[in-house]
Design a protein that fits this description.
mainly alpha, two-stranded antiparallel ribbon, 72% helix, 1% strand
Length: 471
C-alpha cells in the first residue's frame, strides 16, 4: 500500500475538525429549537385540554342548575308557603358552607378570578381559584338554586373554568395568569354558547391588561370548551332565535329611555352590593359582620316573600321567564322586574355562591316588557332585548360584553345598532350612580382584606405594548 504523506494526513485532520466545528453548533441549535417547539406545543395543549375540561364542567353545572330549580318548583307545588321556611334555611346553609367549608366560593366567582389574575402572591391565587373552591362552587351554587335563590350559574362557571385551567398549568406558573383568563372566558362561552362574547368578556372584564401573545391560545380554549359543550348538548341559542327589528323613527325614543332606566337600576344594584361587601357603618354593619349566617337567613326570608308576591316567578335564574317575555308566550307583569331585582339583590348580598348574569338579564327583560304601554308601536321583543342590554350594562359596566352576549343569545343582528346605543347610554348613567365597576370593586375588596396589592396580570411581550381595557 502507498504510504500516506504527512501533508495529506494534516489536511484530513483539518477537514475533519472543520466538519466537527460546523456540525456541533447546528446540532445545538437543532436541540434548542426542538426544546422550544416542545414547550410551545405543551402550552397550547394545556389550553386545549383545559378548555375541554371547562366545557364538561359547564354542561355539568347547567344540568345541576336545571335539576335543582325543577326540584324546588315541585316542592312549591305542595304549598308556596313552604318557601318561608325552606328558603331561609337554605340560604343559611349555603352561607355557612361557603364560609366554613369552601372559603372563597362566595358570590359570583368573577371577582375571585380578577383578584387571582391581579395578585402576585401565589398562595392567594391558589386559594381563590383552586379545584377545591371549584368543587364547592358547583355544590353550593346548586344548593342555592335548590332552595330558591335568585342566582345564575354563569358567573360560577367562570370561576370553575379559571380553576380548571390554573390546575392544568400548575407546572408553568408564569403562564397561570393567561390560563386563568382563558378559563374564565371559556366559562362564559360554554355557559351561554356564545364564543364571541367569551372573547369580549375576557378582554373587557377579566383582563384590563390584555396580552396579545395569548390571544390565539384563549381562542383555542374557548373553541375547545364550546365544542365540548356543543357535542354534549347540541348547537342552540340561549334564548332562542329572535327576529325583532326597530326601524329608525319615532320608536327609537325607547332606546335612550330604556338605556337610562336600565343604567340607573343596574348602577343602583352595583352600588348597594359594593356597599354591603365593604361593610355597612354603625351597629347594623357590626351585627351583619358578627352574624353572617343569620343575615343570610334573613335575606332568604326576603327572597321567599318576593316569591310569594310574584306568584313564584322570581325564584332561580329567571331564564324561563325572560325567554317567555322575549317570545311573547307569557303576559308581562309590571311587578316582575322590581321583585326580581329585590330577590337578586338579596341573594347577592347574602354571601351565598351564585352568579348575576342570568338574573340581570331576567330583570332587564321584565323592565323592557313593562314599558310596552309607553311604546305601543315598538315590538315587545325589541323592548325586552333593549332592557336586557341596558340593565346588564348598568350592573356590570361592561357595555361591549352586554350587547354582544345578548346578540349571540338571540341571533338578532338587526337590533345591533339600537343595542349598542342603549348599552352606551346605560354605561354612562351607571357610572354616574356607581363610579366603580362591580366585579373590579369586589376584587379590590378581596385583595384589601388579604393584605395584598394588585399588580399587572402579566408581563407584556417584548415589542408589544399591553392594551388596556376599561371594565
Amino acid at each position: 500500500m502507498p504510504r500516506t504523506r504527512p501533508a495529506q494526513v494534516l489536511r484530513v485532520k483539518v477537514l475533519r475538525a472543520k466538519v466537527r466545528s460546523g456540525v456541533a453548533p447546528r446540532m445545538r441549535r437543532l436541540r434548542g429549537a426542538t426544546r422550544d417547539a416542545f414547550g410551545l406545543w405543551r402550552h397550547r395543549l394545556l389550553f386545549l385540554v383545559g378548555g375541554i375540561g371547562v366545557g364538561l364542567a359547564a354542561v355539568l353545572m347547567a344540568g345541576l342548575a336545571d335539576a335543582a330549580q325543577g326540584a324546588f318548583r315541585q316542592v312549591l307545588g305542595v304549598s308556596p308557603l313552604v318557601a318561608l321556611a325552606l328558603t331561609p334555611f337554605g340560604f343559611a346553609l349555603c352561607a355557612w358552607l361557603a364560609r366554613e367549608v369552601f372559603p372563597n366560593a362566595q358570590g359570583s366567582g368573577i371577582p375571585q378570578v380578577i383578584a387571582a389574575r391581579q395578585t402576585g402572591h401565589l398562595a392567594l391565587r391558589r386559594a381563590l381559584v383552586s379545584l377545591r373552591v371549584a368543587a364547592g362552587k358547583i355544590v353550593v351554587m346548586s344548593l342555592g338554586l335548590l332552595f330558591g335563590a335568585s342566582t345564575g350559574r354563569e358567573g360560577p362557571t367562570v370561576q370553575v373554568g379559571a380553576a380548571i385551567m390554573a390546575a392544568a398549568g400548575h407546572l408553568t406558573p408564569e403562564r397561570v395568569p393567561g390560563l386563568i383568563l382563558a378559563g374564565g372566558a371559556a366559562g362564559v362561552a360554554a355557559a351561554f354558547n356564545t364564543p364571541l362574547a367569551g372573547i369580549v368578556f375576557g378582554i373587557e372584564e377579566l383582563g384590563r391588561a390584555y396580552e396579545a401573545r395569548t390571544g390565539g391560545l384563549i381562542v383555542a380554549a374557548i373553541v375547545a370548551a364550546g365544542l365540548t359543550a356543543m357535542a354534549l348538548t347540541g348547537n342552540y341559542t340561549y334564548f332562542g332565535t329572535s327576529s325583532a327589528t326597530l326601524p329608525f323613527g319615532p320608536g327609537w325614543i325607547a332606546v335612550p329611555v330604556i338605556g337610562a332606566l336600565g343604567g340607573l337600576a343596574g348602577g343602583g344594584f352595583a352600588r348597594i352590593v359594593i356597599l354591603f361587601a365593604r361593610g355597612l357603618p354603625g351597629r347594623l354593619g357590626a351585627a351583619i359582620a358578627a352574624r353572617p349566617v343569620a343575615f343570610a337567613a334573613a335575606c332568604g326570608l326576603g327572597v321567599a316573600l318576593c316569591g310569594l308576591a310574584s306568584g313564584g316567578t322570581i325564584y332561580g335564574t329567571g331564564y324561563e321567564e325572560a325567554r317567555a317575555l322575549l317570545h311573547g308566550t307569557a303576559a308581562s307583569h309590571p311587578d316582575f322586574a322590581p321583585l326580581k331585582f329585590a330577590a337578586s339583590l338579596l341573594s347577592a348580598i347574602s354571601g351565598i355562591p351564585g352568579g348575576l348574569f342570568a338574573p340581570s338579564l331576567s330583570v332587564g327583560a321584565g323592565l323592557g316588557a313593562a314599558l310596552q304601554g309607553w311604546f305601543s308601536g315598538v315590538p315587545v321583543a325589541a323592548l325586552v332585548l333593549l332592557g336586557m342590554v341596558a340593565y346588564l350594562t348598568g350592573a356590570l359596566q361592561a357595555p361591549i360584553t352586554a350587547f354582544v352576549i345578548v346578540t349571540e343569545m338571540t341571533q338578532d343582528h338587526a337590533l345591533m345598532i339600537p343595542l349598542m346605543v342603549a348599552a352606551l347610554i346605560a354605561d354612562a348613567v351607571s357610572k354616574a350612580v356607581c363610579r366603580e365597576g362591580l366585579y373590579h370593586a369586589l376584587a379590590h375588596i378581596l385583595l384589601e382584606r388579604a393584605g395584598t396589592e394588585a399588580r399587572p396580570a402579566g408581563p407584556a411581550p417584548p415589542g408589544h405594548a399591553a392594551q388596556n381595557s376599561r371594565a
